[in-house]
Structures are given as C-alpha cells and as structure tokens.
Design goal:
It is a single chain. The two termini are 23 Å apart. Helices cover 66% and strands 0% of the residues. The longest helix has 25 residues. Helix 1 packs across helix 2. By secondary structure, the protein is an all-alpha fold.
Length: 228
C-alpha cells in the first residue's frame, strides 16, 4: 500500500494499472487514499450495509439485523485490525449481492447499473470476487425469465467492465502468474499449505503463510523487474 500512496502523491495515476502485484489495484488505492485522509475505513460500514439490506430483502428487518450481528465473529473481526484485502472484498460482495437482488432480476435498469459498479469494483479488488457472485447471477438470470431483461443485463455488464477491465487488459500477459500466486501455490513450502482436515491450530500457519506468500510475491516482482 505504501507504493500506491507514493504513486498518488506523485500524481502518476496511470502507473497504478502497471504496478507489479498479484491483485488488482482498487483495494490498495483506496487504502492509500484513506491513509492520506487520516486512516478512514469504510469497509466495515459497507459490509454492515450490504448484509443488512440483503437480509431485509430476503426475510425482513429482523433478518437484516441478525446478519449484521453475525459480523462480530472473531474470524471476521480480526480482518479489521490490519490492512488486508479480504475485508474490502467481503464488503463489495455484500453490496453487490444486495444490489443484484434489489434489481428485481435486472428489471430495474438503474439498480442493475449500480450493481454493476459494485461488481466491477469487486473485480478490480481481487480476481476471486467472481466466485462469490457467479452462482447468484446464474440463479437470477435463470428464474422467472431474468435473462430476458436485456437492458438491465447490459447496464450491469457495461458498468462492471468499465471499472474492472482496464487493469486486466493492462496486465493480460501476466494474468496466469497472478492467478497462480493469488491462489497461494507459488513457491510455498508444505508448511505454508496445511492439509484440508487438521486439528492443529491454524494461527501459526496463517501467519507463516502470509509471510511466505509476501516473500514469494517480492521474488516475483524482482524477476519481473530484472526481465525488463
């Protein structure tokens, strides 16, 4: 994030698309902006808003309240004690899910376009974002002829593409490497990839995984710089 802050301070905004990193730049850029503004954090409020509105749409205000109440779980709360991209991704997933549902299967073009903005921001934050909304999109399109609402679908897709496409196009040749690194399989020893089923405490492994993944990313950056 420090590198993105330096780019913002220098005014070289175009370089944000080409900065060598395994994830898209939006989360780091907004984090850098927040640091320049004194550390403002909007991820928590956005996550709470998305969860409440989704619960309210599905089962009423009580369900929305319970959805927000569940955000106090330790697994999620620890994401807000340091800068990680998982919390912003979760917030954008919650907002996108709410708006997709609120678009009434893309019949409401304006809401569908806003949902596309949220989806595009999610894809501009982390490649795996699509995995969390793909199933919902399939159901929304398949049920009650949602696929016939072409104007809403076009508004959703165009807004998402305008926001997310620039980074993917600028880094098209590196997407395979980025996807592998983002999945956690780049240069990581067995100790950083614990078995699926284990009774051992995950905390030491989680910390070691973060450290080793950061080392692997830095090695990738050096190789890219050396290759020109």
């Amino acid at each position: 994030m420090v590198g993105y802050r330096e780019l913002l301070q220098s005014g070289d905004l175009g370089a944000l698309l080409h900065r060598s990193w395994i994830y898209p730049p939006l989360t780091f850029t907004t984090g850098a902006v927040a640091s320049l503004l004194g550390g403002m954090n909007v991820n928590g409020p956005l996550l709470a808003l998305g969860c409440y509105q989704t619960g309210r749409l599905v089962s009423g205000p009580a369900a929305g309240f319970l959805a927000v109440f569940a955000l106090g779980s330790p697994l999620l709360a620890e994401q807000f004690h340091l800068f990680m991209i998982d919390a912003p991704e979760a917030a954008l997933v919650a907002i996108a899910v709410w708006l997709i549902l609120a678009s009434d299967r893309f019949r409401n073009v304006r809401v569908a376009a806003t949902a596309g903005v949220a989806a595009g921001a999610g894809m501009a934050s982390k490649e795996q974002f699509v995995l969390f909304v793909a199933g919902l999109l399939v159901v929304v399109l398949a049920r009650e002829d949602g696929w016939r609402n072409r104007r809403g679908i076009a508004a959703f897709a165009s807004c998402a593409l305008v926001i997310a496409a620039p980074w993917y196009l600028a880094n098209l040749s590196e997407l395979g490497t980025y996807a592998t690194a983002a999945g956690g399989s780049v240069d990581l020893p067995p100790g950083a990839k614990p078995p699926l089923l284990s009774l051992a405490s995950p905390t030491p492994r989680r910390r070691r995984t973060r450290t080793l993944r950061g080392d692997a990313t830095r090695r990738h950056d050096r190789r890219r710089l050396e290759s020109g």
